[in-house]
Amino acid sequence: MTVSNYNTTASSNTAINGVNISEGMSPSDVNNAIRQELKDVRDVWNDKEWFLLGSGSSTVTYTRASSTSVTINADVSTTYHVGRRIKITGTNTGTIYGKIATSSYSSPNTTVAFTFDSGTINASDSTVSVFVGSTYVGPSIPVIHDTSLGTSQILPPSQGSVKTYVDAQVTAQDLDFEGDSGSSNVDLDSQSLDIAGGSGITTTASGQTLTVAGDDATTSAKGVASFSSDNFAVSSGAVTIKDGGVVNAELANSSVNYGGVSLSLGGSDTTPAFNLVDATGYTASALTGTIGNSQVATGIDSAKIADGSVSNTEFQYINSLSSNAQTQLSGKLTASNNLSDIGTASTARTNLGLGTISTQASSNVAVTGGSITGIGSPSNNSDVAIKSYVDDAVAGLRTRIIAECATTANVNLTNGLEAGDTIDGGNPVAGDRVLVKDQSDATENGLYLAVSSGASSRDPEHDTIAELSGGMVVVNQGSTNDNKIFLCTTDSDGSIGSTNITYVVVTPSNTGTVTSVGLTQSGTEFTIGSTPVTSSGNITINVNRISATKIGSGTTVSDTEYGYLANVSSDIQTQIDAKSGAGFAVAMAIAL
Length: 592
Known about the structure:
By secondary structure, this protein is α+β, with helices and mostly antiparallel strands. It has 10 helices and 32 strands. Among the domains are: 44 residues; 83 residues, Thrombin, subunit H; 41 residues, no CATH class; 34 residues, no CATH class; 108 residues, no CATH class.
């Protein structure tokens, strides 16, 4: 218990730091109480700048609310006001200094927040002691925190001490500065900074204003110059002489030499004019020297040649001519029975009966809006193939078609081949190929594509009898049809919708007993697996890529030549024959 916890009501003070001072106290308690009171008073005044005010009338507790605030169990917001210096001590906090940032009372506590010079209230201290600084030493003299005397010292300064401190701070300060070369400083309490002008620059000080001005330039001194808009152009600091900016009157009568070209100006030629295009009026004595290739700049603009109607690009077309251009052109324009006008490409094609055919680079020909007919079946390796020839060749290759699954009974084609439907134990997804082979109406059989929903349609690659006939379909999955191969036995001369389409299983065979079957592989056209079969199982044969030399007996067609069949739209020989007339040959030669 300290003086700050004594009550201003005498009867309320019944003990001093544990010493009983109630009525009827023993003589020894009187002595002890007086001694303790003297100690408390002495403790308070040992540091007269700081006081534990408490509530001002009774015991008070400073309870830690946060690292920067406490609560006091009384309304002390007037005494603990904003801006007042404070000192806080605590077992783990130590001693820290600051000032009051906010102070507000909400029954039953006043909450006081602080701004500390450094440190915070330690979380291990549930309570601390909050000392406030004295508000005055003498009448109306505020307390000033003098850091030069230590953070624990708060003393009122004299006018002399304030002046001495300020003078010392000013004397210690210099203004440092640097130039493009060299550096220096100005002692602020004894020296002045002189801003001097240089060549063409003048500085003037008046009051609180320093004016830096540029002098007008002269023939003997630098400075700010202006330029006549009649003679000069200035942009972004760059000065250029305008075309015609120097008139003849400004040229002295003398000999002018530029790049080896000399022009002598006589005494009477006060306003000479000389034009290389029209030099009339000047005699040989007025122009000395010669103008050769070395004096003429390269790249004379074509607009300066003749009447200027020929562009630079057109002028370059003269390069590499081997003889008279018109003679060569006329030699290429000889008319014939099949070509009467070569003036325009469209007219030439019309005269030749070529329609919209146009020539391309490397002698290629593109046909737009028409077709080439009359070509027969090819007989040589370099012959063009017609569509019927290609169709027949492709039909012979249709030996292996992959279907994801195959039907085992009649299905409703309007909704029975939707994604997720069960077909022979499998579930096709949209786009999967399905072999439909068991329809009540056999004309509906064939290869279809599964759809997301609704009616399915035939596979566009197999939607004619000719494309289905002879086709071997390998089924990928199914409870009954897994890995079976079906052959379409329908003749190729039928038609969709009126001809029954039939399939028979060709492998595996369900009869006989397999004791030992083995196959060996030669080449890479087929890959053979799961061999030998000793009692049961399957031999797998995968078709890789059949070389063109293996198609037909003794064929000499290469893989590259076979690729020429791509994109043929009709019988190749028919197309070739249609283009083989004498008139077509002449027309093609001329057009190309």
